[in-house]
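Ticket closed. Logging final result for Nitrate reductase molybdenum cofactor assembly chaperone NarJ.
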Amino acid sequence: MMALRIIARLLDYPDRALFDHQQDLEEALASASELQEAQRDRLLAVLRDFSARPLLDLQADYCELFDRGRATSLLLFEHVHGESRDRGQAMVDLLDQYRAAGLELDSRELPDFLPLYLEYLSSRSPEDAREGLVDIAPILALLSARLHQRNSRWADLLDLLLTLSESGVEAQALQAQVEQEARDDTPQALDAVWEEEQIRFLGEQGCASAQQEAHQRRFAGAVAPQYLDVAQATMGMTGR
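Final structure:
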């Protein structure tokens, strides 16, 4: 699904390439036959809205939204396993799933980063892609509800993913739950987490958030021919 590839790019950390290749992305969007006209227009509106903003402002908003607190983290297993040991095994299983599909990640990749997972699904058949979206539909709905609460344009992308999943899961059903949640991105909440967490030493690499490392990831693997025209505009997928 070409739409998944484009949504993955828009959910990734915004950079200059997003602006430079806007036309390529729009042309790719026009070929996304899995989208209805209204869905295509909605996705096009998000793309143009992002591209019309100053890059530094867009980057600042992205970091404020996705790098502060865990409620809106784009790391899927954060919402399933948290910091439990089960998360490590889930990472290994997902990596095995990627490799079985002929894809390899570089050493800095976090396999549960949502844009990366969408890149993987975009290389699968439409049926497999939808099944993969169904698997994460509850997480997508929760993220969407929280992003809508914060009046974020990125919420439109999560809603489109839910629509493409055809799962019947809706973010609106979680609005009441989300309204009762305490925000975890306030200075007070972040200070509390900092005080509770054990300091981890990462040797020469220093201390860095998983999300920051994810921003530097590149997805390497086999690419279907129809994706090559927008490779530079998206995530730099390359053949093995």
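Residues 2-182+223-232 form one domain. No further action required.
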